[in-house]
Amino acid sequence: MDPGPGHKGGAEDWQCPLLCHCGLVDYQVFVQGSEYFQLEVCLLDQEGKVVAQGTGGRGQLQVPNAHLWWPYLMHEHPAYLYSLEVRLTAQTAAGAVSDFYTLPVGIRTVAVTEHQFLINGKPFYFHGVNKHEDADIRGRGFDWPLLVKDFNLLRWLGANAFRTSHYPYAEEVMQLCDRYGIVVIDESPGVGIVLVQSYSNESLQHHLEVMEELVRRDKNHPAVVMWSVANEPTSFLKPAGYYFKTLIAHTKALDPSRPVTFVTNSNYEADLGAPYVDVICVNSYYSWYHDYGHLEVIPLHLATEFENWYRTYQKPIIQSEYGAGSVAGFHQDPPLMFSEEYQKGLLEQYHLVLDQKRKDYVVGELIWNFADFMTDQSPRRVMGNKKGIFTRQRQPKAAAFLLRERYWKLANETTYHLSAVKSQCLENSPFSF
């Protein structure tokens, strides 16, 4: 089943068609087996009332006075979901047999301009995290109690988005994002594309198939607002231009309703894939992987990088990764690397520039990382990657409180945010004393 939840993306002169409050849900149902069947389709609101209905395997439902799916903290009633019910009646030797399938559906639009990311025609600013499906005891993989804990922490943090770095997460994660209003940049497992051989025709064909699988699985989730085809490829290599042009065009053909990007750490002048993305997603680690200890250089480096990217491509920019490692309980003044003070100070320097540029063309910031996670052993890692704002056990470092203050401030600046939402979250805070 393939309902299209009223998405739209791309055009710079685009105007939200949902301002008239009439939502459109396109659907297509695939049936295997007997050709002797009837299909009935209906859309129910949260009270169980039928608001639209149709027949046949393909069509469009019109929803008068539609309740739109809004992100968390962007509206007083975020994450509104309808239920799309498909009922099949087939003729068998024993007589008529009926069955039905229900799918949660959100009605919302997505669009990108030269300097904005729009959801339902309103500017949206990503303030969130990058994650991993990882914790101690279980290790890597899906864990229901851990997922509920993480979503409670995201709400406490005031985060409205995350990227599935660097692979598709479990379907249950996507379902919770739909219900909680957490916006998702859905990323393929296209990581480690570094060698010239990585851009071979064989690799490209496999990557095209991977995107087909990802879009087929996640296309019906309103929380998914953008596809990311890769993370930190060597997009300056000559074969990268054709590779990403083909890959991004293919992804847009699969789903014209969403923008497409990949996450880069290449130089703006050398990146051969950037011309084909809708949003520039940039990773940088100033004063961590170089200029060790010199937090004062961050504002100049970061502002210059943003200006160069925007001047070259005239596209909105997301700071898709930034951060520093810290070992919980390590304190040092003046700040030294791996202390909580250094991590917090580095974030503050980034925020100075983000606050300037988000007035113009920066449309988001995603911290690396939500929580510490395990890695292969190496001299660069202290029992795993320690760039989390929470420990691997989900306890907060100083940076978590800094980001919480920032994200709630950003949320309060949006037109639709109500103080009652924050009050409710504060009452349920896992870290209020």
From TrEMBL:
InterPro entries: Beta-gal/glucu_dom_sf, GH, Glyco_hydro_2, Glyco_hydro_2_AS, Glyco_hydro_2_cat, Glyco_hydro_2_CS, Ig-like_fold, Ig-like_GH2
GO cellular component: extracellular space
EC number(s) recorded for this UniProt protein: 3.2.1.31
SUPFAM superfamilies: (Trans)glycosidases (SSF51445), beta-Galactosidase/glucuronidase domain (SSF49303)
Residues annotated as domain Glycoside hydrolase family 2 catalytic: 110-411
Enzyme's top EC category: hydrolase
Pfam family, one: Glyco_hydro_2
Single GO MF descriptor: carbohydrate binding
All copies of domain Glycoside hydrolase family 2 immunoglobulin-like beta-sandwich, residue ranges: 47-108
GO biological process: carbohydrate metabolic process; glucuronoside catabolic process
Family: Belongs to the glycosyl hydrolase 2 family.
Function: Plays an important role in the degradation of dermatan and keratan sulfates.
UniProt name for this protein: Beta-glucuronidase
Gene field: GUSB
